[in-house]
Amino acid sequence: MNALLSLRGIAKSFPGVQALAELDLDLFPGEVLAIVGENGAGKSTLIKILGGAHVPDAGTIQIADQPVLIASPIAARRLGITVIYQEFNLVPELSARDNIFLSGERSLFSRLHRNRERRRAEDLLQRIGFHFDPDLAIARLSVAQQQGVEIARALSQDARILVMDEPTAALTPPEVKALLNIIRELRRHGLGIIYVSHRLDEIFAIADRILVLRDGKRVSCGPANQESRKGLIEKMVGRTLEQEFPARSVAIGEPRLVVDDLCRGEKVRNVSLEIHRGEILALTGLVGAGRTETARLIFGADPRDAGAIVLDGKPLDIRCPRDAIGAGICLITEDRKSQGLILDHTVLDNFSLPNLGAFSRFGFLRKTQLRQAFAGHVSRLGIKVRDGGQPVNHLSGGNQQKVVLAKWLQANAEVILFDEPTRGIDVGAKHEIYLLMNDLAARGKAILMISSELEEVLGMADRIVVMHEGRITASITDVAGATQESILELAVR
Questions:
Q1: Among 50, 120, 147, 291, which residue has the least CB neighbours within 10 Å?
Q2: What is the dihedral of CA 384, 385, 386, 392, to 10 degrees?
Q3: Does the pTM of the predicted model rise above 0.85?
Q4: What is the pLDDT of residue 10?
Q5: Could you tell me the sign of the dihedral formed by the alpha carbons of 181, 144, 85, 98, in that order?
């Protein structure tokens, strides 16, 4: 079978960085090619080259054995390549139908054309298993439905090559299962699909072949059924990991944070929990279960209707994040880019934000002490950064997460609320975050870990609390005896 897409000798560099070097790739009709690698391995650069956002410095690209130049996103679409990015390219105020046909030519004043468009949108959505009104605004659709609109738009443009970047990052387990079924159906229709994800269980469930990138270079490419999870991880990180979830032996102490009858409207209803010294308590459930809302109430980011918060036996009156920070509670937010960092500021600026009082005297910032403190966290956390003046948006996702963690450790947080701590970071960086969480627990910190990844929950937690529709439905103390299926059953009842 002839390749649908062939790349030979692709290279791309940026100032001080060789993003891709001598990369070869083949994609065949009706194939799912998974691409995996650590943050900084070159995956994003490759996606942008295929989508026309970057032009390679060297190498050739062929589609159906014909040399092509992908000089722009429009050129990519005309060549039959559609990229669905992790952050959707949709206009929230417009309808699903309008978004599907946004880049096509049409007569705005033709009622017949609009009616035909609606029927076409319905057909495209139904083909991939969606049955909602295409005249609904994007803002009213769920994340899974918005992703369906992106896929329908690709099909409307007669895409032959579909590139999916972290397509399940914000989906619930049932929605992930539905998406994988859609991909299998597209594969049966002859589309070539490039699937980029950090979630290895999905990779093994959907991929025909797996391409591993490391430091911009191709490490291996072979059939998915010939790879093991352990072997794939070692290829990605370039070293042996004894355990994906590092073992920890810490004596669980007395309760540190006690939350009693926390309420806020229908989002959080009568939530009570406690986190002990040296404990990692996992809070899980489906998207919309109230997990993030609970953490925000503890941190004072949202006002609570009722409930009490006690830390080390002392009742707290938390009305805003400043109160929580002063008490020793910090929140590492789910979306570090919009809520945890100021992306166009430097690493040192971000590190200093919750610590300005500690490094100021008479209204002046003691920059030498600030840099010394940050350097200590760089060494301890293994942050890969050129210097404190580097913009934080130039760092990989894993290193951005470490900067967020560093600023809170400097603030001497005793209770750390991790909301999706490893979302969007690679398996090697995940392992480092797990080691850091274990170290914090060993130092007596109390940790709440909110996670949708049930493997992570089972691999890291001392206890598991499950939420559904704003309430706690179960507390699991026998983590070793729990399964993903049993947790999911508790999450949907």
A1: 120
A2: 150
A3: no
A4: 97
A5: positive
Q: Is residue 406 part of a domain?
A: yes
Same domain? For 320 and 457 the reply is yes
Domain region containing 314: 255-492
**Shared-domain flag, residues 300 and 229:** no
Kindly report, residue by residue over 421-466, the tens digit of the pLDDT.
Answer: 887 777 777 888 899 899 999 999 999 999 988 889 999 999 999 9
Instruction: Report which of 3, 34, 50, 31 is spatially closest to residue 20, judged by C-alpha positions.
Output: 50
**Phi, psi (5° rounding) for residue 325?**
-60, -40
User: Rounded distance, CA 275 to CA 258, Å?
Assistant: 7
171, 297: one domain: no
Q: How far apart are CA 410 and CA 330, in angstroms?
A: 11
The closest alpha carbon to 50, from 16, 21, 85, 15, belongs to 85
- pLDDT for 360: 86
pLDDT of residue 246: 86
User: Is residue 249 assigned to a domain?
Assistant: no
Q: How far apart are CA 309 and CA 273, in angstroms?
A: 10
**Structure-block tokens of residue 224:** 């998915």
Are residues 331 and 417 in contact, defined by beta-carbon separation less than 8 angstroms?
Answer: yes
Q: What is the C-alpha separation between 471 and 212, in angstroms, rounded? A: 41
**SS3 state at 161:** strand
Among residues 206, 237, 268, which one ends one of the domains? 237
246: in domain:
no
Same domain, 187 and 309: no
Alpha-carbon span 80 to 157, nearest angstrom: 7
- Helices 427-442 and 397-410 sit at what angle, rounded to 10 degrees? 20
Buried b (16+ CB within 10 A) or exposed e, 467-476: bbebebbbeb
Stretch 106-113: mean pLDDT, rounded? 52
Q: CA-to-CA distance for 192 and 81, rounded, in angstroms?
A: 10
The radius of gyration computed from the CA coordinates of the chain, to the nearest angstrom, equals 24
How far apart CA 427 and CA 233 sit, in angstroms, is 7
Domain count for the chain, please give it. Answer: 2
Average pLDDT, rounded, for the chain? 89
CATH number for the domain spanning 166: value is 3.40.50.300
For residues 224 and 89, membership in a common domain is answered with: yes
Q: Would you call 443 helix, strand, or coil by DSSP? A: coil
Same domain for 217 and 325?
Answer: no
Average pLDDT over residues 273-294: 92
Residues in the chain: 493
Confidence of residue 493 (pLDDT cuts 50, 70, 90): low
Instruction: Looking at the structure, tell me whether residues 221 and 278 fall in a common domain.
Output: no
Higher pLDDT pick, 342 / 397: 342
269 found inside a domain: yes
Which letter, b or e, does each residue of 9-42 get, where b requires 16 or more Cβ atoms within 10 Å of its Cβ? ebebeeeeeebbbebebbbbbebbbbbbbbbbbb
